[in-house]
Sequence to fold (727 residues):
Amino acid sequence: MITRREFLKLPVYCAAGAAMSSLLPAQAVWAGTSLAPYTREARYYKKLPMKKVQCLLCPRECKVGNRERGYCGVRENQNGTYYTLVYGNPCSVHADPIEKKPFFHFLPGTKALSFSTAGCNLNCRFCQNWEISQARPENVKSISMPPKEAVAEAKRSGCMSIIGTYAEPIVYYEYMLDVAKEGKKAGLKTAMVSSGFIRPEPLIELCRYLDAVKIDLKAFDEEFYRRICVGELAPVLESLKIVAKAGVHLEIVNLVIPTLNDSAVKIKEMCEWIKKNLGNEVPVHFTRFHPIYKLNNLPGTPVKTLKNAQSAAMKAGLIFAYVGNVPGDPGENTICPGCKKVIIERMSYVVTKIAIKNGRCSYCNRAIPGVWS
Amino acid sequence: MSSRQSRRHFLSRLAWISLGIPLIGNIECTRPQKPELAAGLPAPPGVRSEAFSRIVEVHSSRVTGERGAVQNTVIQKMVRLSVEKLTGEIGKESWKRLFSPDDRVAIKVNCIAGRRLSTHPQVVNAIVEGLKSAGLDDRHIIIFDRTTEELQGAGFTIRRSRDRIGPLCFGTDEPGIGYEQEPVITGEVASCLSRIISLSTALINVPVLKDHDLCGISGALKNNLGSIDNPNKYHPNGGNPYIADINASAPFRDKTRLIIFDALEGIFDGGPAYSPGGIWSHGSIMAGTDPVALDLKAMRIIEAKRKEKGLKSLKDEGRYPHYLFTASDSDHRLGSIKADDVESLEIELEEEKI
Fold:
């Protein structure tokens, strides 16, 4: 149960977020939180001899000794049983514009209750949320918010959807899954913003309860994944195919980082792969990098680089290619591929015009892929 | 000795006041000084000037009693003798070679495996007595690990500032402590350090002799993962180069003055957690300032035990601790990997006149 104190905090966090970061402040001296109320037996693992376990949630397949945790830092072996430590224990909760995720073809102009726990199964040098993604749950300020409470809060705050985002929903899989189930029951749309670094079986199960998935395709380069993210590209590509095959609305974000993944050749290869394997109507966002975390030495992405990537995507045959993190840029608008008119106009996270009715262009009646109501 | 103090030092002392640690003497007067090292004495990691180190193993066949209980007086002798042999000085002078009365000393123990495979409180008590003999007030000493609960589980008596007697003893998870907000970045992984490390001027590392299912062994280098917020990020590839990287960061490199390896018991297989079938009584205390040389010795002890028990070597099991070699390379310079560069003393307590 959510406590009265925690309940009262929640709208405060939500309201405060309008003017400040969506994340609750990371606490340098936050400590001492008991994780017992948020501990549930994990899904997708197997027991090994000598009280060891092997996690089968993500491609790392961590073998975890007794009293140790997996790479994500939020799943722990306790005497041969593997537990998630973050069930119903988000450290970040906020009613965000859906455009912030970014989702451009999913309920535009609406709010989404966005939540996250601590932990991540990657370690990207450019992580915007490193204060929580690289932290253990006991080291960040969190609240109690079981799935039903999360859904109730989404409704109270006028959100049409509920989304696992910020750090990495894969590592709080059990919580994400149950929030999605409860959300569906309550008539909310459900979604996840993820790296896609997950094994097929759990992703297939999760897709049954999701209306949309946004995957960060961080680069089309195994070496980049290995060196910059401590991950692998191949499982992410597999995840993209699984989401598309499941019929869940899919959008892709590619954060373009100067000198690391801004090669025109690689971007072209990535777009061709997307078209071939996922179709030409998948929205793809080329977003701007800002120096942060371990990549403070690099400059922000020139807008021209993003425009070039957008053009390359169009040339490769992708219909909906966007630029992102460039407020006011026309590259954020949705253009009808039929009549070439602007059908969704955006100014940063604000939608200033929508000309879509029943999933079709208001001007020429061309079907526009997405989730619109 | 400097008569002025830096802003950083002044703030550090204020922080210790906030932890409840009284300051001795005039706050204007001193900056903790690393004691000068005489020729021949291996230098601590922060001041190493020559590729030579000394490690000491003191063994006793009587340290463990009939029921497995460790003998307090024997442990005190073992710790005392190990530091004396390491420094070449006798009694309190041996501790004064490593610590000054103005130091704020953090003692990092290893309690993850519970009471039956953790740093023995008796070993730490002997260390505290040594520090006190060097003129340190016991309120300038903190015994710590990741969590207060783990310390309690290993048999340590928790002491907070309000308890007013004895050295402080609590986990980084104690309210008001926690981890630094800004990460230390050395190599691939960024980590936030325990504020106990930040607030200390000297660190004593007290690891346990352990096999590790992913990293080969858990010794002095790996014990420092209990002082950061994300140890889980350091285990891929058998911890190589990550464990070496974090130990090369300035706080660990500059502050580590002494390593006392609790090798009274060890685990040769099934570690780092407690696993009854892998435990044996080794009966040693090892001391040094070179974490690589000590860990290498620990690995050889574990390998010998594994061979005796008919188990595959760590190498054959694919978990040889390559991070030890990385730690000794020119990028890290944390210690000596070559036998010729290490003076290794092995002493049988019962044969020693003390």
In short: Confidence is low (pLDDT under 50) at residues 1-5, 20-51 of chain B.
